[in-house]
Inverse folding.
């Protein structure tokens, strides 16, 4: 199941259709920017191309989408679901740990340089901020 499907199902169950549109637009936007920056910078991967395609490494698409997805999921849960503080903090730590694990795996496996992952975090953070502001604006 793709990330988009998971978020869409979560939001539809909560009857938050405007949030689905906001998340969809920013998720597509982040994907387009990943592609744009990869082709603009043309930075080779540490160990070369993967199966003859996807030769460029900056920014890390996995880091971008992980930062965006888990950050957005955390924001949506805090926005639309009532949780105890300890559950909210635990969830935030868990999502943060997942993001760091994904980032570390990209470097460890040799698919990315550390700067690729940092660039991915930056790009994912920008789209997370835009999406969070848009969702909060739509549900004031």
């Amino acid at each position: 199941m793709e990330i988009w499907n998971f978020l869409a199902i979560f939001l539809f169950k909560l009857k938050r259709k405007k949030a689905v549109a906001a998340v969809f637009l920013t998720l597509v936007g982040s994907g387009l920017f990943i592609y744009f920056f990869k082709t603009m910078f043309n930075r080779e991967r540490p160990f070369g191309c993967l199966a003859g395609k996807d030769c460029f490494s900056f920014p890390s698409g996995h880091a971008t989408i992980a930062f965006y997805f888990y950050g957005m999921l955390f924001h949506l849960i805090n926005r639309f679901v009532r949780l105890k503080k300890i559950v909210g903090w635990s969830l935030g730590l868990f999502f943060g740990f997942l993001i760091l694990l994904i980032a570390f795996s990209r470097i460890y496996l040799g698919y990315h340089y550390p700067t690729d992952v940092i660039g991915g975090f930056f790009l994912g953070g920008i789209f997370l901020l835009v999406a969070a502001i848009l969702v909060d604006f739509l549900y004031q």
About this structure: The chain is about 75% helix and 0% strand. The first helix runs from residue 3 to 13.
